[in-house]
Design a protein that fits this description.
three-stranded mixed sheet, alpha/beta, 8 helices, 38% helix, Protocatechuate 4,5-dioxygenase, Chain B, 18% strand
Amino acid sequence: MRSLTVRPEAHAGTFYPESPTALGRLVDAQLERAASAAEPGPPAERPSGLVVPHAGLVYSGPIAAAAWSALAARPPQVIVLAGTNHYVGDLRGVAVWPEGSWQTPLGPVAVDAGVAARILALGTPFLARPDAHLREHSLEVQLPFVARACPGSRIVPLLVSFESTRACSRAGERLGEALRELRQSGEDVVLVASSDFAHYPPADEAEAVTRQLLPPLLALDEHELARREAELRFSGRPGLACGMCGIEPVVFALAAFRAMGLGQGRLLASGTSADVPHGDPERTVGYAAVAFA
């Protein structure tokens, strides 16, 4: 594959504002609202794992902000981002962007080449495939939050695509073991998986799907999560195309969280695209933000 070190914005002006001023205002407002909506009392332990949505920021941004604001008080050194492969038909495994930076309207976000190299050293199915990332939005839409909530944090972008839950889980476990070793050596690394929930049912059905999928997700049970999601996907519910469009990166991340020694998940926020002005309640996408510590 050709060498790529700088990944340009592919979705500025569509999934989020192209103007740095407009984008900064939008993300800052979403982070501020998320922080003000946090539960009262002593601050929760900073998460070492997150599941976040990845739609247009006017839709999923308020839910994603609940996750990213949980890192803002103490940004990690490195954020490993596991995303959904929407566009590359020949990807089997985990495509790693190995070095350089990703451009955003808010400035470049640096890739941690050392952690990327440690992940690539695991061998197959971890592959240097920067080309696989060029059109993908599931990680790009996280970067405005990284830039604002975690300035100075470096990223390692991964795209996850497998033909079986078992293979996906095994790869996640191997990543988690590597991240655990890095953390034990003093590297402050957080793993973030990107997924939306139900696609296109009415709002009440989307919320019901989220409720059914949350128990295994919170319990770090990727096999039960995948089983329930497949059952929902083929259930014939009106308008439902899938229960999670990012099931693979979440399966991958749950196995990694467990290998990292993280515990039960905590729901930070959930909702649907119908919750925002002009959202269509008859055709929605579900969102949830979950933290693991």
